[in-house]
């Protein structure tokens, strides 16, 4: 909430996997730019038997729409940068070799503008497009409560077995594919 409400423009440069809490943090940034070749997005919580709690269920539907957010959150799958851009999950994708230069140029451009005008414009846009803080706080409380659900406890044990069998790196690289196999 503090990042979203800050009187400056925050810019995310995404080059890797952004899932769960990392994706929710990324969604709090004002602008999100991603490597076409290397960025992956996801909300894996439901597949493990819990609820998202860092704003994914509140911010993602406002960006991608109700049905796409349902697909992303309920499927717990990984989504590549191409689809994330097409859906509006990120502001724009760029070739990996151009990502840093683009973000640096944009940041320098914005830094040259009047800070009061930037902050006031951001506040106006936020009023019409962001979830209320009460919704974000409610979702976090629901997430914490879901950590004690029996389904999560059973699924996490099964997922631990998958990690032991396939290795943590393999699971992390292909989490969306493995998440369905986390059944006890």
What does this structure look like?
The chain is mainly alpha-helical. Helices cover 62% and strands 11% of the residues. The chain contains twelve helices and six strands. The chain has a three-stranded parallel beta sheet with strand order 1-3-6. A three-stranded mixed beta sheet has the order 2-4-5. α4 crosses α5. The protein is globular and about 55 Å long. The termini are far apart.
What labels describe this entry?
single chain; 184 residues; mainly alpha; 3-stranded parallel beta sheet; 3-stranded mixed beta sheet; globular
| Assembly type | single chain
Overall spatial form: globular
Rg calc: 18 Å
* Spatial strand order of the main sheet: 1-3-6
Instruction: Please identify the structural class as seen in this structure.
Output: mainly alpha
Mean pLDDT: 94
Q: Largest sheet at a glance?
A: 3 strands, parallel
Q: What is the chain-wise order of helices and strands?
A: HEEHEEHHHEHEHHHHHH
| Alpha plus pi helix count | 12
- Bin the helical content: 55-70%
Query: How many beta-strand segments?
Result: 6
Which stretches are poorly predicted, pLDDT < 50 over at least 5 residues? Answer: none
Strand content: 5-15%
End-to-end separation in angstroms reads: 36 Å
